[in-house]
Amino acid sequence: MAWEEWEQLKAQAADPRHSTRMQLNQYVAAPGGGGDTKGDLVVGHKDLEAVGKAAHDLFDDFTNYSGHARVASESAAGGLKGEGFALGGALEHVTERWNEQARTLLDACAHISNHLRYTKNQHAADDSYIAGAVSSIATLDEGFDNRRGY
Question: Where in the chain are the domains?
C-alpha cells in the first residue's frame, strides 16, 4: 500500500459522512433516541403460561379425539380384513402410522408443557437465590458500616 493511499483511507475514515463507528458491549440504539431498549428478549409469565396452557389443552383434546379415531379405525380395519377385503389391511397400515404420528405429536405437546413448567420453576428458584445473595451482600455492607461507626 502506497503512502498516498494510506492517507486517503485515513481521510475517508475521518469523514463524518462515511464514518463507521464501532460499538462495543451495547445494543444499537433505536432511531429517534429511544434509550429504553436493552436488546434482550423479554417474555412475560403470561406469554409462557398461554403457550404452556395451549400445549396442555392440545395434549388433552388430541388424546381424547385421536383415541376415538384409533378405536374406530382399528375396528373398521379388523372388520374389513375379516371379510376378506384388501382394504382392511391397508386401513390397518394407515391406522398404525396414525398412531405413531399421534404419539409423536402428544410427546411434543407434553415436552413443551413440561419444559415451560420447569422453566417457570427454575426462574423462580433463580430469583429467590439472587434475592438471597443480594440481601446477604446488603447485610454484610451494613455490618461493615456499623463497625466503622456510620
Answer: 45-148
